Amino acid sequence: MREIDRVAVEEFGVSLLQMMENAGRNLARHVRESGPEPVVVLAGNGGNGGGGLCAARHLANRELDVSVVLDRSPDGLDGAARTQYETLATMGVRVDTGVDALVDREAETVVDALVGYGLDGPLRGIAGELVTEVDGLDTTVVSLDVPSGMVATTGERPGPSVDPDRVLTLALPKTGLSEIDCDLSLGDIAIPAGVYHSLDIPYSNPFEDEYRVDLTRMSET
Ligand SMILES: NC(=O)C1=CN([C@@H]2O[C@H](COP(=O)(O)OP(=O)(O)OC[C@H]3O[C@@H](n4cnc5c(N)ncnc54)[C@H](O)[C@@H]3O)[C@@H](O)[C@H]2O)[C@@H](O)CC1
Ligand SMILES: [K+]
Hints:
The protein has helices at residues 2-10, 16-34, 47-61, 79-91, 99-105, 125-135, 193-198, 215-220; strands spanning 39-43, 66-70, 95-97, 109-113, 140-144, 166-170, 183-187, 212-214. It is an alpha/beta fold.
């Protein structure tokens, strides 16, 4: 997936922010359909966090009760996540850091966008604390791409990890997701078929007229 993303950007000129916009809008739609308010988006500093922050913008645009809790101070954000954060800050969307903020918010839906396929070892620091806290909450949990703390390729959980009700995975299903039992759907982030073909990955577009498909239903039919 990392290679697919690289080829999409470097050889096909599809920018990370373009793909992230598709991820974030898809995620926001999924949350609007499946999760009650208030919505709290847990976001980290990578592509996964950026997708979550983008979804927060789409939810706020539709006037949902949404706020963000980061795993670090906003000063520690960079790249695309920083860009998404700056927009939210200008919009006046509430953004805080750490477990106390999550507890204060009394979320009915938690969007888990802390870490995706970039997980490196057991979940550490505030991200680990947030995940442990989510485990004790009675909320709907929607994970972006993979549950934070789970290794995307193997499904292993080397430390604290999210146990989601739903996962919206992006572009291709990650192999580790076969290890979990939850509602699983696939989101289109508009990667051209030629990207897959250039990497010798057999691919035909699974989305047809939709931008999100239910993988459970696909595997049954
Ligand atoms: N085409 C793309 O590249 C897109 C990627 N997106 C998402 O971006 C993800 C990949 O982005 P990245 O490569 O930036 O990686 P991630 O965002 O998955 O992870 C990197 C972040 O996680 C933190 N982290 C890693 N291991 C940790 C640990 N053990 N404890 C605590 N924090 C840890 C890092 O500090 C960093 O902030 C995908 O899973 C996908 O969800 C989407 O936003 C859409 C577009
Ligand atoms: K995640």
